[in-house]
Amino acid sequence: MTTAAAAPVADVVRPRRSGGSRRSRVGAVPSKATGAIVLVVIGVLFAIPLIAMTWFTFQTVGTGAFTLAHWAAILDPAQASTYSDLFAGIGNSLILAVIVVVIIVALLLPAMLLAELRYPRVHRVLEFVCLIPITVPTIVLVVGFVPVYQVVQSVLGSDPWTLAFAIGVIVLPYAYRPIQANIGVTNLTTLTEAARSLGASWPVAVWRVVLPNLRRGLLSSCLLTVSVVLGEFTIANFLGQNTFQTALLLLQQTDPYVATICAVVALLFVFALLVLISTAGSIRRPRRKKS
Amino acid sequence: MTSTAPSPAESLVVRGTPVSLVDVVKDYGSGQRALDAISLDVHPGEFVALLGPSGCGKTTALRAISGLETIDSGHVRIGDQDVEAVAVHKRDIGMVFQSYSLFPHMTVAQNVAFGLRMRRVASADRTRRVQEALDLVGLGSLGERFAHQLSGGQQQRVALARALVTRPRVLLLDEPLSALDAKVRVQLRDEIRRIQQETGITTVFVTHDQEEALAVADRVAVMNAGVIEQIGTPEDLYLRPATEFVAGFVGLSNRLEGVLEHGRVAVAGQDLVALPNAVQDGPVAAFVRPEDVLLAEEGLPAIVLSTSFLGAQRRTVVQLEAGSALVVQHAASERPQPGDLVHVAFSGRPVAVAPLR
């Protein structure tokens, strides 16, 4: 018996495909005109409420005449006490944003790197845990948080910053996804192995090779975290804390004009964050040396 | 006027270091050992290729040398030092990976300088050595580019320069050519060999491409199922394969079943002189290279199944009347057509004879 190993076979006739010249448009890149129409429609959809809200802030009560009084009121030192809760709420929200970002960078990122580089079997579990909060309504989470926070408050006090632990849970899906997407398109395993083979210890490999290549995902994650924290209402309200959103609700009942101004500014701020996210990754670093 | 500056290769010359694997075992717990007590000695300055099919353990062996893979038992020696307990970054190795591994956020020059920075080489010396390493791989003018601005071949050249610039004790190449197209692969293969010979660095090269292994290596270790089947020069492997697996894996061969008697193998009535090995008389499998089979006027009758033009030669698959297929390599001037009735004869002895199992 003989075996002809790997012999190339010639004279192979392949069946010809019929209708090969027809190209499907399904999945094709839209034309420039289509893109422009979509962009304009969506732009108008978003712009109309913003413009209406902004227009509302320039109207006088009753007459509807144009006025800058509502905008000036926020900046008027004489009325500072009127809006003190609002400013305190903004301050609390910003502090919360910083703490939650620190939690993400200090806990979630290392956990994801360990799962990617050292313990791939944990990867699925970590993903599952991080995505759970998006499937559970916040109000349900809050019901669970209430008894937990009775303990937290007895240990750490009832300062607004303690909300960071609860909000840190609900931002997990938003923080996890951008980092994971970045990891998915970066061959971190090979890059770290290359760095280590060149003499870098684990910490140095992570600092000099991994983190610079996760910059886009990490930045997106942090900005999304900030926008979620600034928009969070349910947890703060049910746990009785003063944040930007809870203060805004109270202000709405007494001064809807200033509340609307704050809402417009907050929306523009989040919009700016999203623009920053989308451009962050396309920024080509290095300045080139002139020869 | 003559220049006294050393060539790039001279400045990167390293003293070859011996590398040894001694009874190395690695078991992932999948039922079969990835490395089953393999031993391998690589001499100083030698270029050894680990060749084998996917999953045979060749990459695991390489990673055991690098330290990227821990071993269950045995010893890994670089120079006169057992390095099982030495961390990867302290083993003083250079490594080129199968997938592109340049750091995307760094320029080519910064990539090459990375290992030198880790060793705290002074800036001026670093700049000079980076340029020399890039000159060595023919990319001296591309230091300011980023990885995404390079072709695959250029990226692997940079990876090679990056691995060599630190003057490591051993260079480990993990299928560095497999992602490249055929033409670039051959060019870079020859370049790797040239650079290895110029620098004198001990090199272990993993590949599943036998042509690649035979073309560049001083010795080739053929691996299968976690063991080394044979270690030898490319000629040894091709002309004197030690096992049935090596005979089948290295080069094309026809496996012919026959009977060994008094040093001759009878196959379908034709006599083949057997190799003087220790196989006892009885039923055997003989391995005959396609170039040792002729299309002749007389011999075993066969029908041509297919034929392929290879340039100077042609490879034809024939079906013996006995029922089995046979590959024949012959001059391109002979043009058998599928369906032709031909005769085949054997012009050489089998490269290996193994007892029939």
TrEMBL record, chain A:
Q: Which residues form the ABC transmembrane type-1 domain?
A: 90-277
Q: What is its main location?
A: membrane
Q: Where is the composition biased (Basic residues)?
A: 15-25
Query: Low complexity: which segments have biased composition?
Result: 1-12
Positions in coiled-coil regions: none
Q: Give the Gene3D superfamilies listed for this entry.
A: MetI-like
User: Transmembrane stretches, by residue range?
Assistant: 33-58, 94-113, 125-148, 160-176, 218-238, 258-283
- Give compartment(s): Cell inner membrane; Cell membrane
> Cross-referenced Pfam families, in alphabetical order?
BPD_transp_1
Which InterPro entries is this protein grouped with?
MetI-like, MetI-like_sf
Q: Where is this region: Disordered?
A: 1-27
Record membrane topology: Multi-pass membrane protein
The UniProt keywords, alphabetically, are: Cell inner membrane, Cell membrane, Membrane, Transmembrane, Transmembrane helix, Transport
Superkingdom, natural source? Bacteria
Please give the SUPFAM superfamilies that the UniProt record associates with this protein. MetI-like
The record's comment on protein family reads:
Belongs to the binding-protein-dependent transport system permease family.
Annotated protein name in UniProt: ABC transporter permease subunit
The organism of origin for this protein:
Amnibacterium soli
What lineage does UniProt assign to this protein's organism? Bacteria, Bacillati, Actinomycetota, Actinomycetes, Micrococcales
UniProtKB/TrEMBL annotation, chain B:
InterPro entries, per the entry: AAA+_ATPase, ABC_SmlMolc_Importer, ABC_transporter-like_ATP-bd, ABC_transporter-like_CS, Mo/tungstate-bd_C_term_dom, P-loop_NTPase, Transp-assoc_OB_typ2
Q: Which SMART domains did the record assign?
A: AAA (SM00382)
Q: Which GO terms describe its molecular function?
A: ATP binding
Q: Does the keyword field hold Transport?
A: yes
Out of the domains of life, which is the source?
Answer: Bacteria
Ranges that cross the membrane? none
This protein's UniProt keywords: ATP-binding, Nucleotide-binding, Transport
> Which Gene3D superfamilies does the record match to this protein?
2.40.50.100, P-loop containing nucleotide triphosphate hydrolases
Q: Which Pfam families match?
A: ABC_tran, TOBE_2
Ranges where the ABC transporter domain occurs? 19-250
Put simply, this protein is called: ABC transporter ATP-binding protein
Annotated organism of origin: Amnibacterium soli
